[in-house]
From TrEMBL:
One of its GO terms (molecular function) is magnesium ion transmembrane transporter activity. This is Magnesium transporter. Keywords: CBS domain. Residues 354-412 form the CBS domain. It comes from the Bacteria. Gene3D superfamilies: CBS-domain, MgtE N-terminal domain-like. One of its GO terms (cellular component) is membrane. The keyword Methyltransferase does not apply.
Length: 424
């Protein structure tokens, strides 16, 4: 290879924007597609997996890449927007090659692949893998001290063999900054084997967030491959309404077994939600809105709103109730919206600035009625109150949309015609 040819480590390409010649972004790089070759010849890069703004993943051949530099990929602007489908002879570098256990040819020592670098061949558009960055030591020692080294592709062996129990630490480090919905999209496009390995490597909270964003079939598949105790822990970490929706799809015996393994308080919330019809306010609501007593101050309310694990919809307002403070509460008094909290002094009592003009939703309100309520009053969340006046929970706009969109909406490309226009 030419001495001046740039070398790029593949982990640095993850999430990098891809632009057309006019400087318009067409998507982001999500993986690199290579083809293994016989003997010890380095794999050839076939192209990049690029995720469009519609979340569709397409294949961008390396022949249509004019530059890889300064944290960006420049393309010729000609795109084929057909969905990427991996062929049997192809390998995904990020999805399948990182975290593999391979052997050093000279010593036979097992090492873990942390990254690979690619380089463009001189006077050609062809690219190939040239180096492998590895860590010595036993599997599962990621981030612990251990000798790391970069070796030529020909110095390692074992990429062509199927590996059982492959780790996922390096892959997860590459995608560490992704939002849960984007990481869910990554998992959805992995093989079932790799999907299970990545799910096993995620902590409970992160896996719970990702599960909430996955299609139902993927949720059931991943949950079914976890040990039952861990599956129960993950369900506890999920929003109660999402956990209830997932459990409702399981066989009765599996559902009861997992509910029994969950903490009693968490299981009680989920059981309560499962008692309602799915497409009603009771079936849509979460049981964990922000609940305050009327003698709480604006400062108290803002402190609760600032909690980083709250979704924007749940943080948009607080619900003022008589004790007890957990749902089902004492008498529901009204709502205080976030904007009102910003306008009033910190010492103001929330009980004095209530918005109590709108009637709350009944738990048996149908999905169309709930959607109409949100549209009429420009709401992002709404209280659900029973006949006795107790707050049962809150419905958020994202849950309404989830149930109104088609079942396969995560696989649907919106505004695809606009995206295809980049092809010129």
């Amino acid at each position: 290879m030419a001495a001046g040819a740039p070398r790029v480590f593949v982990s640095h390409l993850s999430g990098v924007p891809a632009f057309d010649p006019n400087g318009d972004q067409v998507g982001r790089v999500r993986d690199v597609v290579v083809m293994l070759r016989v003997g010890r010849r380095p794999p050839r890069l076939l192209g990049l997996v690029v995720e469009l703004s519609t979340r569709r993943r397409i294949f961008l051949p390396m022949t249509r890449v004019t530059g890889v530099e300064s944290g960006q990929v420049i393309t010729t602007g000609v795109l084929n927007v057909r969905r990427f489908e991996q062929r049997p002879t192809e390998r995904l570098v990020l999805g399948e090659m990182l975290d593999r256990r391979v052997k050093l040819v000279d010593s036979g020592e097992e090492v873990t692949v942390l990254d690979v670098s690619v380089q463009q061949l001189p006077a050609r558009r062809d690219w190939e893998i040239d180096r492998v960055f590895v860590r010595k030591g036993k599997a599962g020692t990621f981030r612990r001290k251990g000798e790391t080294l970069t070796v030529d592709w020909s110095a390692v062996d074992g990429f062509s063999l199927e590996e059982h129990g492959q780790g996922a630490e390096s892959l997860l480090a590459t995608f560490e900054q992704l939002r849960p919905a984007d990481l869910a999209n990554v998992l959805h496009h992995l093989s079932p084997k790799r999907r299970a390995e990545v799910a096993a490597a995620l902590d409970d909270d992160r896996l719970a967030d990702v599960l909430e964003e996955l299609p139902e079939d993927d949720q059931i598949e991943i949950l079914g491959k976890l040990k039952e105790e861990r599956a129960a822990d993950v369900l506890e970490a999920m929003d109660p309404d999402d956990a209830a929706d997932l459990l409702a799809e399981l066989p009765e015996d599996d559902k009861e077994r997992l509910l029994t393994l969950m903490q009693p308080d968490d299981a009680a919330d989920v059981r309560r939600l499962m008692a309602y019809e799915e497409r009603t306010a009771g079936g849509l609501m979460t049981t964990e809105p922000i609940v305050l007593r009327p003698d709480a101050t604006v400062a108290d309310a803002l402190a609760r709103v600032r909690m980083e694990d709250l979704s924007p919809a749940l943080a948009a307002q607080v619900y003022v109730c008589r004790p007890p403070d957990e749902t089902p509460t004492g008498k529901y008094l009204g709502t205080v919206h976030f904007q009102r909290l910003l306008r009033d002094p910190p010492y103001t009592l929330v009980g004095s600035i209530l918005d109590d003009d709108l009637l709350p939703l009944a738990p048996d309100a149908t999905l169309p009625a709930v959607a109409g309520f949100f549209a009429t009053y420009d709401m992002v969340a709404a209280p659900v109150v029973d006949e006795g006046g107790a707050l049962l929970g809150a419905v958020t706009v994202d849950d309404v949309l989830d149930h109104m969109l088609p079942d396969d909406w995560r696989e649907t490309e919106f505004h695809l015609e606009e995206e295809a226009g980049h092809g010129g």
